[in-house]
Amino acid sequence: MTTTTPAAAAAEAGTTGASPLAATFASGPPADPDGAAVSQAQISDEIGTLERDYRAAGQVETQPRYDYPPYRSSLLRHPTKALHQVDPETVELVAPCFGQRDVGVLEADLTIQHRGEPIGERLVVTGRILDGEGRPVRRQLVEIWQANAGGRYAHQRDQHPAPLDPNFTGAGRCLTDDDGWYRFTTIKPGPYPWKNHHNAWRPAHIHFSLFGTDFTARMVTQMYFPGDPLFALDPIYSSIVDQSARDRLVARYDHDVTTHEWATGYRWDIVLTGGRRTWTDDQAGGES
Hints:
By secondary structure, the protein is α/β, with parallel strands linked by helices. The protein contains five helices and twelve strands. Strands 1, 2, 5, 10, 11 and 12 form a six-stranded mixed sheet that branches. Strands 4-3-8-9 form a four-stranded antiparallel sheet, with no helix packed on it. It is globular and about 50 Å long. It starts with a strand and ends with a helix.
């Protein structure tokens, strides 16, 4: 499945597995002007209204909206003023950013980073990094971070009362090969609560970060799993109002990737440019 993503601010935890959710609405879910907590029904009504308006307008939007009211903190999580072009230092453009010796082969397996085995559904996620013409992007650094099977990040700011897994940190990285392929072995993350509104839950997802040939080129996005019942309730996923663009964020189950008696398999391709470019977190300002 080809994906398109909003670029999350680089501050969204990098490979530390940090989740900014705990810092968002730290005092609890937001309230309407009358002081009542915002309910899921209210959020869903807002999402539905925006989708109907989008379809009626007859335009195509393939990226998340900067200011998406159902995502209550979206206005605070993206630039509000015009960006200024800054020229990178020459060394950043001509020197290699990452080499084969910088990334170990075992870093792509998140299930072997500790003495014991992590709890949860073991799975393989693989795919190709492509440009807008369908050509492979070689030697691309791909990093992932995620919650554990219980829906908790291994970070002190995540106070979701789900158990931490001492054998799962939730961060890994690899380099794409000559055909643009990446491959990770990990555990399927669980959904988790966040404080956008009362009883708000995020669909299970894995964060992806891609570096180009220099430190000035980075893209951050999210991969989701097919058939998640939380899709329709999630204002971050819904901030991409075009359904076909949303679908590019969802991996597909691939039985050829699945390993006998070991791991299920998912395929998710990422397109960096062109009309089917993957949604990136930097445009929406990130999440939780």
